[in-house]
Structures are given as structure tokens and as C-alpha cells.
Known about the structure:
Bound molecules: adenosine monophosphate, zinc ion
CATH superfamily of the domain at 34-294: HUPs
Distance between the termini: 28 Å
Helix content: 40-55%
Structural class: alpha/beta
CATH architecture of the domain at 34-294: 3-Layer(aba) Sandwich
CATH topology of the domain at 34-294: Rossmann fold
Largest sheet: 5 strands, parallel
CATH class of the domain at 34-294: Alpha Beta
Mean pLDDT: 90
Strand content: 5-15%
Strand order of the largest sheet: 5-4-3-10-11
Number of helices: 16
Shape: globular
Radius of gyration: 25 Å
Amino acid sequence: MAKNEITKQVNKIVNEINPDIFLFNTLTRKKELFVPVKINYNKSSDHIGIYSCGPTVYNYAHVGNLRSYIFSDILKRVLYLNNFKVKHVINITDVGHLTSDADEGEDKMLKGAKREKKTVWQVAEFYTSAFKEDVKKLNIITPDVWSKATDNIKEQIELIKTLEQKGYTYFVGGNVYFDTSKVDDYGKIALLDREAETKSRVEKDQNKKSPHDFVLWFTKSKFQDQEMKWDSPWGAGYPGWHIECSAMSMKHLGEQFEVHTGGIDHISVHHPNEIAQSECAIGKKPWVKYWLHNEFLVLADGDKMAKSGENFLTLSVVENKGYSPLDFRFFNLGTHYRKQLMFSYEALDSAKNARVKLNAKVLELKNKLEVGSVKEKLESEESKKYFNNFLEDVNDDLNTPKALATLWELLKDSKIEDCEKLSLVILFDEIFGLGLRDLEKDDIPMEIIQLAEKRLRARKDKDWEISDKLRDEIFSKGFEVSDTVDSFKIKKK
Ligand code: AMP
Ligand code: ZN
């Protein structure tokens, strides 16, 4: 089907209605109308800037990390649907950082290198590629810029020099610190009561004037065998963690840009520090307009999934259990990004089964319509209403669960003719990113899926006789069904 026709039609509809987008801004703790930074913003030539805090590449990304990038992908797709152009930057934290956000703990990269008997550079390269592979598998649109911290040391040094010249730093014990006492609204995003917190915190680094201060440049490494070092005006060393995001976002997106994303763990330390140093460097004007944070993916027993902990689940593990990465993507769409997402294989099974049904429905429509001869269209008032509802759902702070409900409602609606239905579903998938446009005709028929589901129920009831019979029936119809941990896989014979 010709993508351009429907895209043109939708662009026109969107231009006519000029819909509002609302995003929940952590800075104000309110849903706010999205308005680009530039006063005379021009949709055809200007870009919306999005910066997403990227992975620390000393290990594989876990499925919790991946939730963060599925969320920023949805944000980007929603902006595209609203006819915005976007410039998206994701950084790669490949400099050795500490296991605590507050300049404490072990060096993460060094820990990875020791574990794997490799150099820190090899570790970084390996896990960066692995992360990009996951991104691809999850249909996350590749960012416009992948920005590696180690490729931008000069920019970080320049930013620290600016802060030093403006009087926001102090140098003690070989390290350059940011002086948070110079910033009246330090910690505004964390709603931090600085005085109360300062009294209650026990600071391990005696060089700090306040526990909230943080290192901009280390020359006194806490680790003897620190491999990553660069020359700087303060001596050979390496940057503190927070400075890289300020330096690289401003390099690519300018001094002021629209959206910064990350997980909720960054609200308390990393993002207050990014804001403080950036706003002091650019002259006390607002730096980023909208701060969006995704809630955590947690394990069913409520445990947080941590990269350095044992509760570590990767996309490959999930794939090896028989799930497609798109099952995991679909699973994410069912929960709003600001709600905790409880991971369990049972919940993933439900997502998988729903996706199988969705694919089957789309194929049924494609088969009926003899794809290729069909023109995508959106003409009837009813179908336009569905599009408007969908747009309203996703423009309401990326409400994908509601948008999915609109999708199922559409699929059931007999008043919409098949051609328009298929056009709408494929259009909705520009947000969902489930590859529906490219689904091959004649894949797995609905009848086979229903038989496999029946067989799964029989297996769960330990009714092996029925289960075997159903396997044979599926086989006789030209398909092979195999078992996964909690579900099934089907392939053509
Ligand atoms: P890291 O590689 O640890 O720096 O994390 C990469 C991104 O994943 C950051 O935006 C984190 O806030 C986010 N993140 C970390 N753990 C989780 C989790 N369990 N669920 C969702 N997002 C997470
Ligand atoms: Zn960051």
C-alpha cells in the first residue's frame, strides 16, 4: 500500500484541526499544553529537540532500561503524527561512573572490565552494540544522534571552564566540584527541601562543602587502575557523570530545547544537577521546557530491576523463552508510562496473545482486500472520528492504553468498511510501532491461532490427549506448533 497517500491525507487533517498535545511536566507536576520553545516556531523548518538519558554501557540493558526508550520512542512518534519534525539525541555513557548517583561507590565501567577481563573500551563498545541491537529489535526509531561521552570530552571541559569562570565551582583534593549553594533554586525538579535534606544526609566525601555538591572533573581517581583519562586544565582525569548530558544535549540541540526524558530515578540527583549546571552556564534562563520521566518496570514481587543487581532480565532472555521483542513492546503499550509496569511471564503471555490476535485480524483484512490493489483512505465521518479519538488519546500525555482500547473498538466496529479500517490500523501503528504495515499476507491464519490457544488451555489443564489431538490437527493444516514456557510458537511446515 502506498504510504504517502494516507500520510498526506493525515497531514492535512492534522493541519486543519491543529490538535493540542498535553505532556506531564515533572518540573511543575502538571499536565501542560505542549508549546515549542521558539516563539515563531515553524513546523515545516524547525525541529523539536528531545534528549534522552542513555544507557551506561558496562552491561546489557535490562528490560526496565528498555522501557525508558520505548517511552521516548512513543513521544517522538506522537510528535511526528502531529506534523512536528524532531531531533532526538540519546547519549551513551561510556565513561566510568560510580554505582551511586552521588559520586560514591564503585566505578561501573571498571567493574564490568574486571568481570569480563577486557579493557573498559572493549566493554563499552560491546555493550553499546548490544544496546543498539535491542533498540532495532524493538522497532524504536533510531535517534538522530547517538552521542558518546568519550567522544565529547572537549565539550565537557569547555562547559566546566564556563562554570569555573562564572564562579560556580571549587577545587579541592584534586577534583572540581559544582557549588550548589550558589544556585537559589537548586533541586527544584526534585521538590527538594535543601535545608532539611542537608541536615539528614551523611556525606562520605569530606571535600564537599555541601552533600548536594557534585564532581565535575576528577583528577584524584578513587581507583588505582583507572584507564580512561584525559588532559584538562585541572590535570589528567575524567569527567563526573552529570556534565556529559548538559554538554552533549546543548551541543546538538542548542542552549534551550523542548524535552528531556529519563527514568524516575533521575528526578532526585542526576536531573537537578544537569539543570543546575546548564542553567548557570547559559545565564539563568530556563534550559529544558518539559521534563518527562517514565516510572519503573518492576518484577512481580515489587523488586526494582537494577543493572548492578541480580534481578536482571534482558531482551535476549525474553526472546530465548519464545517471545518476540515486539511482544515486549506491546506489553509496554498496555500501561501508561507514568505507572509502574509489573513484569511477569504471565503478563507477557497476555500481551503476546493479544498481539497474535491483532496480527491475525490485520492479516484477515489484508487477505480480504488483496493488498496492493487497495488505496488507503480515510473518508467517512466515522473513520475520521476514530482517527480524532486516537489522536486525542495519544496527545493526552501519550495515553497508549487508551489508544489500544480505541484500536480494539475500531476492529470490532462493523460500521467501518474494511478498507478504511485497515487504513486506520496501519496509521495507528505509526505510534504503536508493531510492524503492522509490513505484516505478510497469508502468515498464520486466525483458525490456526485459535486451535493453538485451545491447545494451550488443554496443556494448562494437563489434558495431554486433547493437546496432542490439537497438535495433529494444526499439523494437518500445514503448521507446526511448539511450546514455550507459558505460551506457544507457530510456524509453517
Ligand atoms: P542506566 O543505563 O542505568 O543509566 O539507565 C538507562 C535508563 O533506564 C535511564 O533513563 C534510567 O532512568 C532508566 N531505568 C533504569 N531502571 C529502570 C527500570 N527498572 N524501569 C524503567 N526505567 C529504568
Ligand atoms: Zn543524563
